[in-house]
Amino acid sequence: MPPWRWRGPSPALAAMGLLQLLVVAVLASERRVAGAAEVFGNSSEGLIEFSVGKFRYFELNRPFPEEAILHDISSNVTFLIFQIHSQYQNTTVSFSPTLLSNASETGTASGLVFILRPEQSTCTWYLGTSGVEPVQNMAILLSYSERDPIPGGCNLEFDLDIDPNIYLEYNFFETTIKFAPANLGYARGVDPPPCDAGMDQDSRWRLQYDVYQYFLPENDLTEEMLLKHLQRMVSVPQVKANALKVVTLTANDKTSVSFSSLPGQGVIYNVIVWDPFLNTSAAYVPAHTYACSFEAGEGSCASLGRVSSKVFFTLFALLGFFICFFGHRFWKTELFFIGFIIMGFFFYILITRLTPIKYDVRLILTAVAGSVGGMFLVAVWWRFGILSICMLCVGLVLGFLISSVTFFTPLGNLKIFHDDGVFWVTFSCIAILIPVVFMGCLRILNILTCGVIGSYSVVLAVGSYLSTSLSYITLNVLKRALNKDFHRAFTNVPFQTNDFIILAVWGMLAVSGITLQIRRERGRPFFPPHPYKLWKQERERRVTNILDPSYHIPPLRERLYGQLTQIKELFQKEQPAGERTPLLL
Question: How does it sit in the membrane (predicted)?
Answer without folding.
Answer: Multi-pass membrane protein
